[in-house]
Please model this.
Amino acid sequence: MIELANEKQNQETLNNAIQTLDQLVKSHSTPKNIKNNITEMITELQSSEYSISVRASNLISTLDDITQDPNIPSYIRTSLWQVVSTLESIRE
Model:
């Protein structure tokens, strides 16, 4: 029963991260190359090939690389850090 509650909470957390990423994709001020990367990330998060925790871990690693880019606008970097923080709360 506790596992089911954790799974539901993880899914809600994942949905929140996807929603934040989706807002960046829909924003007119997000550069096109970043939109393409974020769209791929959303697809990976929605895939059911791996467990939620594995998908979250993979994305955290990818986001860490992207946020290190000095050319990324600061408001996007901040939003991506927010997604990282959200995904870090997912536990197996």
Q: What stands out?
A: The mean pLDDT is 90. Residues 34 and 45 are 16 Å apart (CA to CA).
